[in-house]
Amino acid sequence: MGKEEPPSTSKELQELQRKLSLLMEFIQGNSKVVAFMKSPVGQYLDRHPFLAFAVLVFLAVTAVPVGFFLFLALLASLAALVGVIILEGLVISMGGLSLFCILCGLGFMSLAMLGTILMPCMVVSSLINYWFSPR
């Protein structure tokens, strides 16, 4: 038994060819395409179809890697921005914590200095009051 093609295959091919020709007419009738084809680059590519096809294939093949690279660059920029914000918050927090520690240390030092300065003053004052008090 041999393979028999259904009779609808040729009709499907003719329908596909008709749709393709309508699509080509629509593209060639577009004002932007007409303007490009009238430009020197468009005329050059019209005279050199292999080069036009090579440029088309190159653009189609490089679109995905370039888009992926741009996506990664955008993602890295956003990560850097978030990282800078987090780093800035961390630096401000660490600076605030160290300022708090330094101020607490200075407070305790000032209390210690106040004690060392006031003790002799109180002792000298008490001695003066004791020596020169009326008896």
Automatic annotation (TrEMBL):
<dbReference type="GO" id="GO:0005789">
    <property type="term" value="C:endoplasmic reticulum membrane"/>
</dbReference>
<comment type="similarity">
    <text>Belongs to the LDAF1 family.</text>
</comment>
<keyword id="KW-0472">Membrane</keyword>
<feature type="transmembrane region" description="Helical">
    <location>
        <begin position="50"/>
        <end position="72"/>
    </location>
</feature>
<dbReference type="GO" id="GO:0005811">
    <property type="term" value="C:lipid droplet"/>
</dbReference>
<keyword id="KW-0256">Endoplasmic reticulum</keyword>
<feature type="transmembrane region" description="Helical">
    <location>
        <begin position="111"/>
        <end position="132"/>
    </location>
</feature>
<feature type="transmembrane region" description="Helical">
    <location>
        <begin position="78"/>
        <end position="104"/>
    </location>
</feature>
<dbReference type="Pfam" id="PF16015">
    <property type="entry name" value="Promethin"/>
</dbReference>
<keyword id="KW-0812">Transmembrane</keyword>
<keyword id="KW-1133">Transmembrane helix</keyword>
<keyword id="KW-0551">Lipid droplet</keyword>
<dbReference type="InterPro" id="IPR029709">
    <property type="entry name" value="LDAF1"/>
</dbReference>
<protein>
    <submittedName>
        <fullName>Promethin</fullName>
    </submittedName>
</protein>
